[in-house]
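Retro notes (design track)

What went well: tokenization of the new backbones is finally stable.
What didn't: we kept losing track of which sequence belonged to which structure.
Fix going forward: every design gets posted as structure first, then sequence, in one message. First example under the new rule, 490 residues:
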């Protein structure tokens, strides 16, 4: 319930942002992918022909928001699953009615003295997890693409070496992209750059951490400072002027660590305050003004910087593989298809695909399981798709570059070179695990391997999971019909 609530509340905020844009109440934003707007509208049964983008976007946002408050019926995106999978869900009685309703009922039923039957509780877990993958997360991914652009391959770099000694370093951390998207533009503003130079800096260096970072990486190529377990380490460099965090995966010790340095920890969401941190609450209607206030605060902090220690360690990477782009690479704009990938499995050139996802966990060696598993999979002709902290781990270890072809098995290497994709594909943030669901649905609907996702040779692995969100992801993987494996590096 906690994991589904985290992802779904994120999705709600993005849907509210779309509604504000459609009403003209958020001037900092615009609809950047009209094609996806109209495709998603059609998927949800919204008439889009002969209507403006704003009209379609407003109805889409209102219809999406109904998913949170619906008391009866089914989630909108359930209909996007393969028909056979839908039948299984309905037969089991686990199709969610509304996002908030199922989460609230789960909290009720797990309270003391209520639901006391293990099988009944397991059915509840299956239902609540569908709320996440096929509800809040899928809506979040689709609407973020509509507002901020559907990702395409883009080059960048990762690790602490992406910090700059002579520039104002701003870390964006958390999960919601709305503020981060505006900061990307503000740090390029000539007036703001001039202000930074007046304080002795040569420029402003924006970096990402965790999933807010992944969102900016996928669409703008903003470098990644690191994943979950590096957030205190990046502060220890002494080179970070502002650590801007919205919600989720923010270490409790971050503010304490910052007090030994000059770094300002700035929280921005009404859902998350940290004792001692600076709180600047974000509102879409005043997005540019608030983003400028945050960036100016970071610039003002630059002269307070003391001794720094920036490791000379960074790795190049290529990210930005949306499910639309992967489909496009296999057939072009007018013949988008997963047929080449399905055929490669049928012909035995590759053995299948695995989503390696999830967190870092302090109980095991940082990133070790992530990297070992990905290397072993591609060596054995198994394609890998990755999101979240695993994606950042892969980036740091050079697994998101064309050179990784040398580590891939001969069949996988041949297929990837023919299609024009690497063997390890960065799909985005944690909510973007919904892209994996869409890819698998398209593979099942393409035919040749079966008529349901459970017929596909696919699996999902979270080697270092620690957050409730990862549990929700693992269970909706089960719901969707593919094998999950959770562990701590064993």
């Amino acid at each position: 319930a906690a994991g589904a609530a985290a992802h779904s509340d994120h999705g709600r905020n993005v849907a509210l942002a779309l509604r504000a844009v459609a009403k003209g109440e958020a001037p900092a934003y615009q609809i950047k992918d009209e094609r996806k707007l109209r495709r998603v509208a059609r998927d949800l049964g919204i008439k889009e022909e002969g209507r403006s983008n704003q009209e379609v976007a407003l109805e889409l946002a209102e219809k999406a928001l109904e998913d949170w408050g619906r008391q009866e019926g089914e989630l909108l995106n359930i209909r996007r699953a393969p028909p056979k999978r839908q039948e299984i869900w309905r037969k089991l009685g686990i199709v969610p009615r509304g996002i908030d309703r199922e989460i609230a009922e789960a909290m009720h039923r797990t309270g003391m003295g209520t639901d006391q039957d293990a099988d009944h509780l397991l059915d509840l877990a299956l239902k609540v997890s569908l709320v996440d993958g096929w509800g809040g997360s899928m809506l979040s991914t689709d609407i973020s693409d509509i507002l901020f652009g559907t990702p395409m391959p883009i080059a960048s770099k990762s690790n602490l070496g992406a910090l700059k000694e002579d520039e104002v370093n701003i870390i964006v951390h958390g999960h919601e992209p709305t503020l981060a998207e505006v900061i990307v533009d503000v740090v390029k503003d000539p007036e703001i750059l001039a202000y930074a130079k007046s304080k002795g800096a040569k420029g402003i260096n924006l970096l990402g951490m965790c999933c807010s970072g992944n969102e900016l990486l996928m669409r703008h190529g903003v470098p990644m400072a690191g994943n979950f377990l590096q957030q205190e380490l990046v502060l220890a460099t002494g080179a970070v002027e502002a650590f801007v965090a919205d919600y989720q995966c923010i270490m409790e010790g971050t503010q304490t660590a910052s007090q030994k340095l000059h770094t300002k920890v700035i929280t921005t969401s009404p859902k998350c305050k940290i004792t001692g941190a600076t709180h600047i609450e974000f509102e879409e209607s005043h997005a540019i003004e608030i983003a400028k206030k945050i960036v100016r605060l970071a610039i003002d902090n630059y002269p307070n910087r003391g001794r720094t220690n920036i490791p000379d360690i960074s790795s190049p990477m290529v990210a930005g593989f949306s499910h639309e782009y992967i489909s496009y690479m296999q057939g072009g704009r007018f013949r988008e298809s997963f047929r080449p990938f399905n055929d490669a499995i049928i012909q035995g050139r590759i053995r299948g695909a695995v989503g390696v996802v999830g967190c870092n966990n302090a109980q095991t060696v940082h990133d070790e399981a992530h990297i070992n598993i990905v290397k072993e999979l591609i060596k054995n002709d198994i394609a890998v798709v990755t999101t979240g902290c695993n994606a950042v781990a892969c980036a740091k270890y050079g697994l998101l570059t064309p050179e990784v072809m040398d580590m891939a098995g001969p069949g996988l290497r041949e297929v990837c070179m023919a299609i024009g994709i690497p063997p390890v594909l960065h799909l985005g943030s944690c909510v973007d695990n919904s892209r994996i669901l869409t890819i698998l649905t398209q593979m099942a609907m393409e035919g040749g391997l079966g008529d349901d996702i459970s017929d596909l040779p696919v699996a999902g692995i979270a080697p270092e999971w620690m957050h409730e969100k990862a549990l929700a992801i693992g269970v909706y993987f089960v719901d969707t019909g593919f094998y999950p494996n959770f562990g701590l590096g064993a």
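Added context from the reviewer: Residues 317 and 400 are 5 Å apart (CA to CA).
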